[in-house]
Amino acid sequence: MKRRDFLKIATGSAGGAAAVGAVGARSSSASAVLQEGDGNNTTSGNGTTGAAGNGTAGNGTQSGGGGLPGAGTTKTVEVGPNNTNTFAPETVYIRPGATVKWVWKSPGHNVHAQKVPDGASWDVQTKITETADFTYSYTFDGPKGEYTYQCDPHAGMGMVGTVVVNDSGEAPGGGGGGESSLSPHEMGVAFQAHYVGIATILMLLVSLVYTFFVVKYGESQHASAPNKR
Question: 185 catalytic, yes or no?
Answer without folding.
Answer: no
